Amino acid sequence: MISALTIAQAHERLKSKSLSAVEIARACIERIESVDKSLNAVVHRNFDRALEEAKKADKKGAFDHPLAGIPYLAKDVFCEEGVATTACSNVLRNKDFVPPFDSTTTKRLNTVNAISMGKTNTDEFTMGASTETSCYGVTKNPWDQTRVAGGSSGGSAAAVAADECLFALGTDTGGSIRQPAGFCGCTGLKVTYGRTSRYGVLSMASSLDSIGVLTKTVEDAAIVLGTIAGKDPLDATTGDMPVPDYTQTLKSGVKGLKIGLPKEYFIKGMDPQVETAVREAAKVYASLGAKIVDVSLPHSPYAIATYYVIVPSEVSSNMARYDGVRFGHTVPERDSLIEYYERVRSSGFGDEVKRRIMIGTYALSAGYYDAYYRQAQKVRTLIKRDFEKAFEQVDCLLAPVAPTPAFKIGAHTGDPVQMYLEDIFTAPVNLAGIPGLSIPCGFSKENLPIGMQLLGPQWGEEVILRAGYAYEQATEWHEKKPTM
């Protein structure tokens, strides 16, 4: 199946002229039309423009860049000129917001002639861990459609796992790339905060949001990262750091590498199948010549509480712009501006967005700022220092992505706190601003993928990609495909 090709495989076939960009685009379109009615991974389709871009790529015929002629999907928070972008929220959906500009990430991809095919499902404004808060409905897991695909980049993960595209863009604020990648059995890369530009991407929590990618292999993730990374004058938070060719160090192996196992990531209550799979992965690394070292991240138990003070606080600020005046959802028959705001936001936002706005507004209010927000920022610093100390001992860390495989649709709907705990292993990484790579490391007895994550120091994408590639070459988990 053409749409099942990796980026690297498709590039070789495009260069050799054994396959055309139009053929790849059509294969992906046919796959979406065949399976997405049941998955609900793709919420906006841009097929006519994609085919036109594919024809242009074939006409140029050079395919010098590994992403030239490669079709991809973007999470429904990436602005693309002339393409509806709704963050899967009725606030924008009810009057389809069509951006007049491109995000830096999609612009960089388009510059090298990668082909955008549409937008993928996400939790509303990326607030959730299951895509169940999307105004378009939940995305179903390709491995078991009674289960979630994860979130908030669940649409992107399901689309990659189901071969609806060759890669997809996602965002990760507390695990929103890594957790769905783990649930769907694909590769998910969350980069160092500031490694990629957030310009043109609808914000949830500005100090934690990271732009990343979901792919079929680690090599593909390295290819895409090399294209989208780098300083952006339109985003002051991007680091002025050189962008290496991440594919050059992939095959260096892990002999002599020190890999840490943080004891706080193997906790009581996690699924024993998850713990077994990750510990078996550590044995694979040991057999490849890496040294496994036990480490401690003592402030990790406080990460969820810290995260769910800081995130709602930033949400309450970022969501204020959706007032129904400048763009988006409107309501008729209003007697005052205050009433208009109230009715627009009450009818436009879903329950989870409202919940976070209220929590954040409370935490930032006079009399409570010092007690909650300032204290959370202090604990965030302690969490960051834990990682810095760990990386003085080891080159990278190995940990589970989530405490369980994909859970049933509706399992946590009435219990938001239980849903928040899904981020227990991923949120500390965002608080510290370091990179994380999720790759498949096994399957449960229900034939559900289990993911592990490799964590690196700030700007340490090279080391986790190298370690991920070595594990991938030594195992076959990434080659397994869901039956659809």
Question: Could you characterize the architecture of this molecule?
Answer:
The protein is of the alpha/beta class and 484 residues long. The protein has one domain: Amidase signature (AS) enzymes (Alpha-Beta Complex), CATH 3.90.1300. Helices cover 39% and strands 14% of the residues. The protein has helices spanning 7-15, 21-39, 47-60, 90-93, 104-111, 154-161, 178-184, 218-228, 272-287, 303-318, 337-348, 351-364, 369-393, 416-420, 427-432, 461-474; strands spanning 42-45, 71-75, 115-120, 140-141, 144-148, 167-172, 187-190, 210-215, 258-262, 291-295, 396-400, 436-443, 449-455. The strands form 2 sheets. Strands 1-3-2-6-8-7-12-13-11-9-10 form an 11-stranded mixed β-sheet, with helices on both faces. It has a two-stranded antiparallel sheet with strand order 4-5. The radius of gyration is 21 Å and the shape is globular.
Largest sheet: 11 strands, mixed
Please state the overall shape, judged from the principal axes of the Cα atoms.
Answer: globular
Overall tally of domains: 1
**How many alpha or pi helices?**
16
- Rounded mean pLDDT score: 96
What is the CATH architecture annotation? Alpha-Beta Complex
Order of helices and strands: HHEHEHHEEEHEHEEHEHEHHHHEHHEEH
Work out the radius of gyration. Answer: 21 Å
User: What's the CATH first level?
Assistant: Alpha Beta
Question: Can you summarize this structure?
Answer:
This protein has 484 residues and is α/β, with parallel strands linked by helices.
